[in-house]
Hints:
Oligomer: single chain
CATH superfamily of the largest domain: Fervidobacterium nodosum Rt17-B1 like
Keywords: Hydrolase, Metal-binding, Signal
Distance between the termini: 47 Å
Helix content: 25-40%
Radius of gyration: 24 Å
Domain NodB homology: 295-471
Number of helices: 15
CATH class of the largest domain: Alpha Beta
InterPro entries: Glyco_hydro/deAcase_b/a-brl, NODB_dom, Polysacc_deacetylase_ArnD
Number of strands: 19
Shape: elongated
Signal peptide: 1-18
Mean pLDDT: 87
Number of domains: 2
Largest sheet: 8 strands, parallel
Strand content: 15-25%
Protein name: Polysaccharide deacetylase family protein
Amino acid sequence: xxxxxxxxxxxxxxxxxxxxxxxxxxxxxxxxxxxxxxxxxxxxxxxxxxxxxxxxxxxxxxxxxxxxxxxxxxxxxxxxxxxxxxxxxxxxxxxxxxxxxxxxxxxxxxxxxxxxxxxxxxxxxxxxxxxxxxxxxxxxxxxxxxxxxxxxxxxxxxxxxxxxxxxxxxxxxxxxxxxxxxxxxxxxxxxxxxxxxxxxxxxxxxxxxxxxxxxxxxxxxxxxxxxxxxxxxxxxxxxxxxxxxxxxxxxxxxxxxxxxxxxxxxxxxxxxxxxxxxxxxxxxxxxxxxxxxxxxxxxxxxxxxxxxxxxxxxxxxxxxxxxxxxxxxxxxxxxxxxxxxxxxxxxxxxxxxxxxxxxxxxxxxxxxxxxxxxxxxxxxxxxxxxxxxxxxxxxxxxxxxxxxxxxxxxxxxxxxxxxxxxxxxxxxxxxxxxxxxxxxxxxxxxxxxxxxxxxxxxxxxxxxxxxxxxxxxxxxxxxxxxxxxxxxxx
Length: 490
């Protein structure tokens, strides 16, 4: 279990609007003024995801013309139905974003990012907090929703189920009272919002003291550009399910999810791997590999690690190939053993931000938080800090470059993109990579896609047969400068 600052997970939304004329903060409450004590925002308990054996991350990413979408949710062994319940919880938000019409004169692409954190874990209950950051043109939206999954019924339980039915009125009264004591809260907004009673909020978790963390979306109860969490005394309120959820938060354990009682869903058709023009190829890389002489190419993979990354690592080891992995911090936290394996097997480790926002929307503090937290996670997993960064979507500017330089990170872009996120077809990915490959190329792919992983045996065989040496980015480019931008090795 770990405790985080209440709004850290949504820093990307807060910093996106710094310097844009935020509304003034509400005046401190009368009690705060009377005591003269500094207000301390309540804390939210989160759980280290690696406590769950076999946890993984399901990522859905789209870079369609006009907008970006990056949605990540956790997966659990024997828990396809649980992951679907999480996706159902955010589906309306995704659909609403997809219907947004991008103005013809928009100079920055609209973006929806959904990230997650584990806020409870036990054989009885799983709690997952889903954070949405939506930006479109000059507008933005920050919201959160906590889904409590009952492992006995395999269903997502509503907020009301955390509380005894006869205690709901008391809960609502305590929320109003706690809000009145919180200087971040605009009381009139709170009163207006609470007219909706239990429908006024859908993110409830726990604080380190075992109290309720009741969270409101941005602008619902405050002028804050991020959601606001209020601490509410839980004594006498919780139902049996609520008590189980609190135990899962304060005393987390591996849920050891069992198979659902219903029939297993019909398996999808297996992905057919393309066949390379050549037979199986291997290469042997020595310390004397010289890309000024050899025809080098750097294979790079974004957005992982996920469980399937292990299959790609097996392939790379079998072919004697080294690659560069640009990793998302929240996926690193869920799969630290894979990061350690990458380092042990000689691959280069790269930073791809914590939860994949456009860094150009953030101020320096927001960029730093995204990159620093990810570098720390990688170093904690592998014992080595990354020296490379790939800004999500390739979105960079002078501010991103300055923070990257400060953190000792060189910006690695690409010049070959098979758009593997778009077609999800192993044959097409293979054809595009092989056709576009050239000496000193940096090839972009995504190890989160099964079809991409399936394409790479034939890709590697064909590239080696064509005389290319497949190396890491640091092997391809000598003297990388922190903050510098590199599209290839030329």
